[in-house]
Amino acid sequence: MTRRPRLPKPEDFTAPSHSALVAARLGLWLGVAFALCFATGLLSHHIQHPPGWFTWPTRPVNLYRITQGVHVLSGIAAIPLLLAKLWSVYPRLFARPPLRQPVRLAGHGLRRISILLLVCAAFFELVTGVFNVAQSYPWRFFFPQAHYAVAWLAVGALLLHVAEKLPITRAALSERLGAKAPSEPIGGPDRSAAGPVRDDDTAASGRRAFLRTSAGAAGIAVLATAGVTVPWLRRVSPLAWRAAVGPQGVPVNRTALAAGIVVPADFQLEITWPGGRRGVYLADLAALPQRTAELPIACVEGWSASAYWTGIPILDLLGHAGAPTGRPVRVSSLETGGLYSTSVLPANHASDPLTLLALRINGEVLSPDHGYPCRLLAPGRPGVLQTKWVARLEVLA
What we know:
About 40% of the residues lie in helices and about 15% in strands. The chain has about 400 residues and is of the alpha+beta class.
């Protein structure tokens, strides 16, 4: 009679990479990556959709460039770390549920559901994030809202998981990699499912090798992409999705053709405020005192590039028009119907002398793709809020 094949049990997996020592360290590294990614992503969301209590500073001018670079690169690093972590603990998927103990069975089921939620949310965030940096959207939902909502689900599930595994993880982290592996596996509380103990040199060497490989894969992934935001790494970042190339030496995400921009022959910049209005022709804008500043374009996709922008400080332009200053300013584009055809400059940005209505880039008149006839350039702002093809400035009450 043919014997039915036996389903594997957690103790059947004896590779050093499945030990609690390995899983705990990978979990710590992954937790750091997730924490950085979540915190900087939350900042980016609040900058773009600021609640009433939130204020983002104008200096240093590279602040958003740094925080968004950390956001994207920590997400990139999390991909190989997450895969390594899942490999280290997947034998626990074969643990038998305690069917004859209803209380323990309920706890087992809740743990499985929370882990499933965590893994699904983490993969959703990382996969859609990679598609976003590539500016590819093969789905129908609005990426920023979905990415923000699922981030909270992922963090909530992660905190529950950490709370449950904290005693096991703390014990595992206190052990040296060369020490005898704890009998308690990171994936579950049953000592009976711990598997054979391996404390010889081969097991210790295997644990170290797996961790080094995982850390190396994360490091290579970051190095291969970090050139998008770290200029001196661009030559060694073959997978960087944006390089310092494009019209007038700076990349663009949205071209004038894609935005359907038509600049009127008699273009006037409209400046309005409660109780007043003034139109300024382009030639008059060019005749006003200009300022040149080196400022970065830092996009939410993580890429950034610096250029020398020349234009009129918004503060001076409002004063020239007789408009009140020290207030928020709504900036509107010639583009109609776009999601980011308008943006609001907070009062602190509108009052900063480095916030420019730019007319030139690197000494040249703006090309259509860079926002001709004029565009906004404010320090420390996401590129998506640096409105191009500016047609109107509205001082808000």
